[in-house]
Amino acid sequence: MRMSTRKSLGALAAAVALTLPAAGEAQVAPNSADAPIAFGGDDLELTATGYSLIGRAEITQGGNRLRADRINMTTGSGGQDVTRVEAIGNVFFVTPTQTARGDRAVYDLNTDELVVTGEVILAQGENVLRGGRLVYNVRTETGRMAGAPTAGGDRVQGVFYPEGND
């Protein structure tokens, strides 16, 4: 995922949509959604619908990494093309500049959409955003955070540090 250091999460949160930034305006890098998928884990299990990585499961694609206690990969007909990835337990989605943490994540390779749920924490540098559901598109590099239950209702909460405040 390309990240832009010029956009701050604070401005995006104010717009109610979270856009994960790109790596540099002058750089043109291949999109992570087009990169090959590499994977590993303590155990690999063949299932009726694909494969499961069990224990220290990890998938990488481009500069992105998804890790969890267990990752289930659903394959299309023929058993080769991965169409869906489900991560369960201690989920971390890591890009070169951001980290998202949650209880569960589902990545649909047909739509390039990653949905992280549970107690979701998104961090970029010192900036932190918390909610109950993060939807992120790895191709368009855009996302949206939905609120988590609080005493005042479902809320997104965060702390943002303005750029240039030393």
Please tell me about this protein's structure.
This protein has 166 residues and is mainly beta. The chain has one helix and twelve strands; from the N terminus they run αββββββββββββ. Strands 1, 2, 3, 4, 5, 6, 7, 8, 9 and 12 form a ten-stranded antiparallel beta sheet that branches. A two-stranded antiparallel sheet has the order 10-11.
Q: What's a quick, concise take on this entry?
A:
By secondary structure, the protein is mainly β. Helices cover 4% and strands 55% of the residues.
Which terms summarize this structure?
disordered N terminus, 1 helix, mainly beta, 4% helix
Question: Helix and strand layout, with pairings?
Answer:
Layout: H1 9-14, E1 37-40, E2 43-46, E3 50-61, E4 64-75, E5 82-94, E6 99-108, E7 113-124, E8 127-137, E9 142-146, E10 148-150, E11 153-155, E12 157-159
Antiparallel strand pairs: 1-3, 2-3, 3-4, 4-5, 5-6, 6-7, 7-8, 8-9, 8-12, 10-11
Radius of gyration: 16 Å
Shape: globular
Question: Which ranges are low-confidence, i.e. pLDDT below 50, for 5 or more consecutive residues?
Answer: 1-29
Beginning-to-end CA distance, first to last residue: 28 Å
The computed structural class is: mainly beta
Q: Classify the oligomer.
A: single chain
Q: Quick check: average pLDDT? A: 78
Number of helices: 1
Main sheet makeup: 10 strands, antiparallel
Helical content class:
under 10%
By DSSP, the count of extended strands is: 12
Proportion of residues in extended strands: over 45%
Order of helices and strands: HEEEEEEEEEEEE
